[in-house]
Structure prediction request, 484 residues.
Amino acid sequence: MISIVRSKGFAFLTKTSKPTRYLCSHHLVVDHASTELQEVIRIVSSHIGGLDDLEENLNKVSASPSPNFVTQVIDSCKHETSPRRLLRFFSWSCKSLGSSLEDNAFNHVLRVLAEKKDYTAMQILLSDLRKQNRAMDKQTFSLVAETLVKIGKEEDAIGIFKILDKFSCPRDSFTVTAIISALCSKGHVKRALGVMHHHKELVSGNELSVYRSLLFGWSVQRNVKEARRVIQDMKSAGVAPDLFCYNTMLTCLCERNVTRNPSGLVPEALNVMLEMRSYKVQPTSLSYNILLSCLGRTRRVKESCQILEQMKRSGCDPDTASYYFVVRVLYLTGRFGKGNQTVDEMIERGLRPERKFYYDLIGVLCGVKRVNFALQLFEKMKRSSVGGYGQVYDLLIPKLCKGGEFEKGRELWEEAMSLGVTLSCSVEVLDPCVTEVFKPVKKKEEAALVDPRALSLKIRPKMDRAKPKVKPKPKRRSKTKKRI
Prediction:
C-alpha cells in the first residue's frame, strides 16, 4: 500500500517498509516561470507609458527569455496591444538571446505585424531580417505581399519579390503565384501580367490558380471584355474553367450591368450559365444568388421571381440566401403578401434560416413603416426557435410606441420579460407622457388666393409684353486698298 502525504512543497511516499522523501522542485520552477511570463505579458499589454518606458520595465524583470517564451508573449499580447509595443519587446528579446533566436521567431512576428497592417513596423523588421541574414519563408512572404497590396503599397510588394534572394527566400511557383494573387486581389492585373510574362517557366503546372487570380482582378475592375478574354485563353491553353471561374465571370458581368444595363442582367447571365452547362459545369445556388442579388439592387421584381422558379425547375434547390434576395425586393416594392407567401414556401421546403435572415427582413419592414407585417414575421421567427430575440424586441417596442400603439408595445415588453430576454430599450418608452408619437401629416394643397382687383387690371406678365424692335446696325464695309 502506497500513500502520498504533501506538506510545504514536499511529498512523502510511504510504504509499509520505510518512508522515502522527494523534493517537488519541478512545480516550484514551473510556478516561477509562469509568474515571470504573466508579468512580462502584463508589461507588454499595458497602455501606460511609451516604448522607452516599456523597455525600462522589461529590464527590471528578472526573466530569462527563451524562443518559446518570446512566442508565448507575442501570441498572448497581439490582440491586446499595439504592433509597435510588440516590435519593441521582440527587439529587447533579440538583444538578450542573440543568435539563439531562430528564423521561425522572426517569421512569426512578421506575420503578426502583417495581420495588424502596421506598415512601418513591417519595414523595420524586414530591414532587420536583411541585416542579420535571416531567412523569410514562403508563407510569410505571401502574407506580407497580400497586406502591402491591401494598404496600397503594391510597389513595395513587387520590390520585395524582386529581391527575394536577399531574404533567402526562393523565387518558385509558390511565391510567383502569391504575388500574382496579391496584386489581382485589388485589381492590379496589368502588374500581375507583367510578373506572369517574366516568369512563365515558374507558372507552368499552376496555371489554374493564376488564371483564377487574373479573372478575379478583371472582375474587381468590372472589365467584362478582359474577363472574357481570360476565359478564352484558358480554353486555348487546355485549362478547363471551373465553377469558381464562371461564378467570377458572372459577378463581373452582373455588377457591370447593374449600373450600365439593368435590362440585360437576366439574358446575359443565362447565356453564361448555358455556356457552363456546355462544359459540364452545373450552376449552383451561389451562381443564381449572384444574379438575384443584382436584380434586387435594381428592383427587378418580376425577373427575381422568375429566376427563383427557374431554379426549382432546373433542379437547383434554392437556399435561404436565394429566398432572402427575393423576399427583400418584394418587401421593398410593397408586395408584402407575396413576400409572406415566399417565406412560408421556404419554411415548407424544410429550410431553416438563421436569425440574421429575420433580422434583416424585419428591419426592412420597419424601414418601410409596415410594423404589422414585421410582427407577423417575428411570430414565424419565434416558431422556428432560432433564438436571439432581444434585438427584435428592442426594434419593435419603440417603433410601436412611437406609432401610438402603446398596448401592443407593452404586450411585447411583458412577453420579453416572461422569456427572460434582456432588453436595451428603457421602460420609459411605454409611457405616453415620455414617448413622442409621430403622426403622419397630410400635405394640404393651399388654394391660391386671387385678388379680384388684380383681375380688373389688365396687367400682362413680362413675358407677354412686346419687346421693342431694334433696327439692325448696318454693316461696315471693309476698306480695301486698290492695287495700282
Summary: The two ends are 148 Å apart (CA to CA). The chain is about 60% helix and 5% strand. The longest strand covers residues 3-7.
